From TrEMBL:
Polar residues bias spans: 40-53
Originating species: Hymenobacter sublimis
Taxonomic lineage from the root: Bacteria, Pseudomonadati, Bacteroidota, Cytophagia, Cytophagales
InterPro entries: DUF6970
Pfam families (UniProt xref): DUF6970
Signal sequence interval, chain numbering: 1-18
Protein's name in the database: DUF6970 domain-containing protein
Length: 155
């Protein structure tokens, strides 16, 4: 026990000597800055645009060809409703040789909708508490092709 107590001061002297021989300088956060300044500004300047709320692209090209009446009615419902954040998007895809329409959800933990060309609700491919939808179309993301933006809320 006594020999280990004697070893500690000897080890400290050796480490101190080795550090001094290598010109190691130690500074602490309480040292005064060398230039007299505390450093550069860490807070960025405010931006003129709101960076929280997403803005739909004004130059978005919508695929308005062959919109079924039920889809035009659905788009009109979204246009008449209160603005959602994030904005609603509707895409068309080809899935197993058929046209389907994917409608995004307005916000958090809500199901998205996947409609057949005739307007029948097929499933909820994602969203919900788990983010995995209702499980009725698990291969939608993997098998969909020919994505086209049909509509997005311009507000």
């Amino acid at each position: 026990m006594r020999s280990s107590l004697l070893l500690i001061p000897t080890l400290a002297v050796l480490l101190h000597t080795a550090a001094c021989q290598r010109n190691v300088a130690v500074t602490t956060p309480t040292d005064a800055p060398q230039t007299g300044l505390a450093g550069s500004v860490s807070t960025p300047a405010p931006t003129s645009a709101n960076t929280i709320e997403p803005t739909p692209r004004p130059d978005a090209v919508f695929d308005a060809t062959k919109r079924p009446k039920w889809l035009a009615d659905r788009i009109q419902q979204h246009s008449n409703a209160e603005k959602q954040n994030p904005p609603i998007h509707i895409y068309s895809y080809q899935l197993d040789g058929a046209t389907v329409y994917y409608e995004s959800s307005p916000c958090c933990d809500q199901f998205t909708n996947l409609y057949a060309a005739d307007g029948k609700l097929l499933c909820h491919p994602d969203g919900g508490l788990t983010g995995k939808g209702d499980g009725k179309c698990p291969d939608f993301v993997k098998n969909r092709t020919e994505e086209r933006l049909v509509w997005q809320d311009p507000r």
